[in-house]
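User: Can you fold this complex?
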Amino acid sequence: MNARARHEARAAYAMLTPSLIGVGLFLLVPVLGVLVLSFLSWDLISTPHWAGVANYVHIFTSGHFLNSMWVTIAFTVMTIPTAIAGGLLLALAINRKLPGTSWLRVLYVLPWVSAPLALGVVWKWLLDPSYGAVNALLGRRVEWLTDPQLALPSVVFVQVWSTVGYISLFFLAGLQQIPTSVYEAATLDGAGRVRTLWSMTLPLLRPTMFFVTVTSVISSFQVFDSIYAMTRGGPGFRTDVIASRIYDEAFVNLRLGRAAAMAVVLFVVLVLVTLVQQRYFSRRITYDMS
Amino acid sequence: MTEKTTLPATTAPATGGGPAAPRGTRGRSGRRAAPSWAASRLGANLLTYAFLLTGAVLMLGPFGFSVLTAIKTPQQFNTSWPLTLPDPVTGENFTTLFSDEYSFIVPIAVTVQVVAVLVLGQMVSSILAAYAFAQLDFPGRDPLFWVYVSTLMIPVVVTIIPLYSMMTSLGLKNTFAGLVVPFMFGSPYAIFLLRENFRSTPADVLDAATIDGAGVLRRLWQVMVPMNKPIITTLLLITVVSQWNNFMWPLIIAPAEEWNVITVATAALQTQYAGNWTLVMAATTIALAPLVILFLVFQKQITSSLGVTGVR
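Assistant: Here's the predicted assembly.
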């Protein structure tokens, strides 16, 4: 290594120092930390002691964590197809480029830049049984967030409402990348509007679909703020998503080991989801391209 | 005339809007096809307008209603239909919020400072790291970058418990440092995006600067940063948005009132004064309005992040 290369390497390491602290100390060390904590029993006050796999055994045998897994999966399964269908429809509508519609997409994205916590508080009022705007419009009293049957669909609705515009932007970008020659060919072949959509547009949007699905699943598994504002996981744990459970277990019940075990499981699940989706979609895409 | 008509009206914009050239291909007589096509197109257009406007009303409604409630007197809110317009319009809820009893000015001040420090810290650290990865040669560069990128997969909920115990054991619970320290040293996401952009900066521009005798840092600040202003602006705005909206970490590390950020203060207000909706909506208005305005002003730069982050 000559002097110039050594000088350059030294400069590089110096420039990397802040981010090495950030990535090392505040991302990688905590990942190791959560793994260690998941084998400990600790209430923040007394000294932690070794618990072996007791935390894992407990979270998989007592009801709350498994319930949270199901709630999160149900939340995700209800939210994402709805939001994707809505986002796609919005994108198709905007992409017709009718006069005066292009600025509308700015409105659809407003919830995305807004604090999920504040939006949750707003929806808590809108859905309030006695004073809420929704019941005022409907002219009847519905316990949107306190009825055990309705609470989960209600928070799903709010999640769809806040993500649909953001998702539509991705589809819009995808649509605008489809060459017009594709449509010209389809029209010349006599393909109708619906045919063109099904057999040309949607397959060509598959990479967008993949990206949107993966990122939505990942963020859906971590949803916390809006649920905290609207239901705190209630009524009767019906909306108790994983992040709410981890928060409660760690910072309300002060069982940090148990909460850490839940966090580890969540992390593993998210990594698996990413890998599975990646494999599934990449196979589908290559088939179509060949 | 509904969407059931199968004439290819949706394809018209994509073909460049040339008037009805290929429409005869479906074997209809030209004389009849033209008006029916026009009518179908009109129907589809009306449907599209109706759909987009309904969407816009649904999206804006919650924002509008919360502001309308925030400028209503509690008396009016409690005695009349929730959707009546404010009469009289009042700033009463905001004055109450800023009075000594609620002192909502504190969370605003805390939030502004937290956002400022985090944005500055993240931008500087990320730009430095991205430049090193993009333009400098050093042992271990590629494996290290791979480590950075893989940390993108780590969700906040996973790291939050160990971070909490780290910060608490350092005595940083309910302090300004506790709020900012874990997140101020760059973000892998920003580093990743910036590196992509810095790499595509033409090498001869940088070489010219090197021959000029500019050092690494001067090359970075005087050539690289100005040349990549759009992506840096976008990242800056996105960082402001995500930090202003941040809730979980501040809730855990700084629950004491004097260190509440705006989201935590709003949540606390809603819990404490449940049912006092005019006051709570004034708080959400304060939490939401700055970013809504920021977004309306910079919407091009903010949404353009989709182009770089998302689909190629």
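The mean pLDDT of chain B is 83. The two ends of chain B are 37 Å apart (CA to CA).
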